[in-house]
Write a structure and sequence with these properties.
It is a single chain. This protein is mainly alpha-helical and 65 residues long. Helices cover 65% and strands 0% of the residues. The N and C termini lie far apart (85 Å).
Length: 65
């Protein structure tokens, strides 16, 4: 099936346009992911450590089997 030079040229141009669009979308997604990662890293660094739990050493547990 012979498409002819004009049709092949249009198909190649359309393929290149779609590929460029896909690459642009991927770049945008990666940039957004990087921003979210930076925000998450900042949140983790500013978190306060959890309060220390009381020691259970003074309690006695009796288990009867």
């Amino acid at each position: 099936m012979d498409l002819g030079v004009p049709q092949m040229s249009m198909n190649l141009a359309e393929g290149n346009t779609m590929r460029s669009f896909g690459i642009g979308m991927m770049r945008q997604s990666m940039d957004q992911l990087e921003q979210v990662g930076e925000q998450l890293s900042q949140m983790i660094q500013t978190m306060t450590p959890p309060a220390a739990q009381a020691s259970l050493e003074s309690h006695t547990v009796n288990i009867v089997v």
